[in-house]
Amino acid sequence: MDADIDRLRDEILASLAAAGDLAALEAVRISALGRKGRVTELTKSLGALPPEQRREVGQRVNVLKREIEAALATRAAELEASALERRLAAERIDITLPARERPQGRIHPVSQVAEEIAAIFADMGFAVAEGPDVEDDFHNFTALNFPPEHPARLMHDTFFLEATQDGQPLLLRTHTSPVQIRHMMAGPPPYRVIAPGRTYRCDSDMTHTPMFHQVEGLMIGRDVHMGHLKGCLIDFVHAFFERPDIKVRFRPSFFPFTEPSAEVDIGCRRGRDELVVGEGADWLEILGCGMVHPNVIRAVGLDPEDWQGFAFGMGIDRVAMLKYGIPDLRTFFEADLRWLRHYGFLPLDVPTTYAGLSR
Ligand code: PHE
């Protein structure tokens, strides 16, 4: 009898250890402890034993039962744990992988820099205004205080179109200043806008292309003065180049539509093939500016005794070249994908003054 119990115990423990999943384990349990299980049958057979043996064998069968129950519980826990392991491994998600593919396209440095400039001036309360690329003589020249036959009209190397308006040829705007006129004629003062856009002059070399980009600035109020002009532009230069130590110089100049007029230079160092902004003793011109001429204020129907302010115009391509160390302006417009991958910006990194203009 003892030998039978031991054999039964070994068999059951062996098949229990061999059970590969919870279903197989349940089958082992039923075959051992179920209503018709082998241990159950053994318990039932105890009644046939003589009373003196019955007690002792009964105890051994009880020990066996508890041992099998404990082994079942241990094995069940093991199988559950390994099932969980398998499931976790199968359902594992690598959260370090990007949810979307990295975008392939790049933002052109001109677009990037236009956004950067708009972000900085937006912080100073400037809205964005726009005007057409095809202009007429009035908006591009006359209202900006270029008298007829004035030599400054020639300075601009204007592209004139065959189409005419009021007997005058239409033209491709030579600067963004006509947006000043359009904006002021469209509604009442005060004004505080920038106007980025394309401009055209018949010119082409390392630093000039027939189409280029400017951003105009205009601020008109009852008491806007030269101090405001200087403060705005100095703050702008520091914010744009992301260096508060850049030297800024206002040098007297001439534009028909401003009086007084100035050009703004920033401190730089010129090496043999390099130009470093913010170091050295050289100067580099980056924009023209001045107090809006009373004749311009009059041309848009306002009284210069009541309204005054400043304007500026800056080459977007030029400051992009300076900030991002791009040596040849012509490459901007060659649509070379390798160039764009190298100098372009990620489309989701939108420039802001708080999170960083260029990351
Ligand atoms: N329009 C001028 C240019 O293209 C720049 C400028 C704008 C100067 C506004 C003064 C004021 O050179």
Question: Mean pLDDT score, rounded?
Answer: 91
Give the tally of β-strands.
11
Uncertain runs are none
The secondary-structure class comes to alpha+beta
Q: Overall 3D geometry?
A: rod-shaped
CATH homolog superfamily of the largest domain:
Bira Bifunctional Protein, Domain 2
CATH class descriptor name of the largest domain? Alpha Beta
Task: Tell me which ligands are bound.
Answer: phenylalanine
Estimated radius of gyration: 42 Å
Query: What's the main sheet like?
Result: 8 strands, mixed
Oligomer: single chain
How is the secondary structure organized here?
Elements (H helix, E strand, L loop, with lengths): L1 H17 L3 H12 L4 H8 L5 H40 L18 H15 L3 E2 L5 E2 L1 H4 L11 H4 L4 E6 L2 E5 L5 H9 L4 E10 L10 E11 L4 H16 L6 E8 L2 E13 L4 E3 L4 E11 L1 H6 L8 E8 H9 L12 H7 L16
Helix pairs in contact: 1-4, 2-4, 5-11
This protein binds phenylalanine.
Phenylalanine (PHE) binds next to strand 10 and strand 11.
